[in-house]
Design brief:
18% strand, alpha/beta, 211 residues, globular, five-stranded parallel sheet
C-alpha cells in the first residue's frame, strides 16, 4: 500500500467515521505491519473492513497486541488475518498464532494465503511457485484450524484463466521449471493457470469435505 495515495482517497462520512474509498477492503502487508509503524496507525483510524498479512516472523505476543490495536471494539468481520507462512512453516507457526488470537478475545476472520510464502526462484532465474506447496499450505491450515477449535474462512490464490500460461510448476499441467519460459506473462507474481486453478479448487474442496 502506498500511504500517500490511500490518504488522498480517504474521506470522512458524517456520523460514521473515516473510510478509504479506493476499495471496500484494504490490507497491511507482512513487511509493513510494525506495531508503531505508519500503516498500522493509518488502518486503525479507518472504518473499512481491513486485513493484515501474518507471516512466520510475527511473534504470538505481537499478534495479540496487533489485533487489539486494529479491532479495539471487537467488531465481528472487521479484521481479516491473512496467514502466509510457506508450506514448510505453517505447522510450526499457525497453532501459536491461533492460540494468541483466542486468548486476546478479539474476533477475526482467518484466511490462508497459499501463494506468497511459497515463492521460489527457478533455475532460469524466474520467480515461480510449486502447485503442491501452494495447495498444501491451504490444506494444512484448514486441518490446523479444525484441530484448534478455529475456522479457516477462506483462501487466497492468484490465478489466470489463460490455459497456456506457464508461471507455476506442477499440478495436472505437469509444468517443469525448464518450461516456464514457454508462456511466462506476469510482470509481478506467478499465477496458477486455468487447469491448475480448477485442480486447486477441487483439491481444496475435497479436503474441506473430508472427515
Amino acid at each position: 500500500m502506498q500511504l500517500d495515495l490511500e490518504q488522498s482517497l480517504t474521506r470522512e462520512v458524517p456520523g460514521k467515521g473515516y473510510y478509504n474509498l479506493s476499495a471496500h477492503m484494504v490490507w497491511i502487508g507482512d513487511r509493513t505491519r510494525q506495531i508503531l509503524g505508519s500503516h498500522v496507525e493509518y488502518f486503525r483510524g479507518i472504518r473499512n473492513p481491513i486485513g493484515c498479512k501474518v507471516g512466520p516472523t510475527m511473534s504470538p505476543a505481537e499478534l495479540r497486541q496487533l489485533v487489539h490495536i486494529l479491532n479495539p471494539d471487537k467488531v465481528e468481520g472487521r479484521l481479516v488475518l491473512i496467514t502466509r507462512y510457506g508450506h514448510a512453516k505453517v505447522e510450526s507457526a499457525l497453532p501459536e498464532h491461533i492460540k494468541a488470537v483466542q486468548e486476546s478475545g478479539v474476533p477475526v476472520v482467518w484466511q490462508a494465503d497459499g501463494m506468497h510464502g511459497n515463492t521460489v526462484t527457478a533455475v532460469n532465474k524466474l520467480k515461480t511457485r510449486k502447485f503442491d506447496d501452494v495447495v498444501g499450505e491451504c490444506i494444512k491450515a484448514m486441518r490446523i484450524h479444525r484441530e484448534h477449535g478455529s475456522v479457516l474462512a477462506g483462501i487466497h490464490l492468484e490465478l489466470t484463466g489463460g490455459a497456456t500460461v506457464t508461471e507455476c510448476t506442477g499440478g495436472c499441467s505437469d509444468i517443469f521449471e525448464e518450461m516456464l519460459t514457454q508462456n511466462y506473462e506476469t510482470y509481478c507474481d506467478p499465477r496458477l493457470n486455468y487447469a491448475q486453478s480448477i485442480e486447486a479448487a477441487f483439491t481444496v474442496a475435497g479436503a474441506l469435505t473430508a472427515k
